[in-house]
User: Fold this.
Amino acid sequence: MKKIFESIRYLKRSVLVVLAGIGVLFGLLLSLPAVEALHWASSNDFCASCHTMEPMVETFKQSSHGGNNSQGFVAECVDCHIPTSNVVDQLWVKGTSGMRHMWGEFVLGMEALDYQQKHDARSEYVFDSGCVNCHKTLEERALAASDSSPESDQVHKRSFEKKGSDSDWQCSSCHFDIAHPNLRWKMREREYTRLREAAQAAQEGGI
Assistant:
């Protein structure tokens, strides 16, 4: 009888091991397309596919982050607009922001984003973790800056010295248009063009 119970326990362990192995294999098979889909949905081309993103794409290309630099380096949209703190945060922000954009683009038929509202709330859409991920030595270099250091390091030093005491401190507090220069004017120009074309179409329709 004892041997029978031992055989049953051994069989249970074997079955559990096999089931666990199958579960891991199944999970890996499912994760591969999920990772590929996430990678595709995180590309600049995907982000630029929305009609409402056109002004952002145009101004981004004119910025140092968009390739207008001596190295030809081009950042990804997700480098700034998705946190790099942990996977859970990344998936949550990517999923919720993606759904909002797709809802506005394909369901509501939005012509443009409310730039002023988004700009005032930029700290909710631009994450310091992305800045730090690329500019790894900036804070250390800035805090060690002296009167003979480059002006940019001296300015950053004064800013970083307030980091611990200012609860609202973020890189985007100062660098609010660094990746999208003149976006405000681009948005206004786009709106003027839309209104002018609508007025012209109405006038031609009246004739």
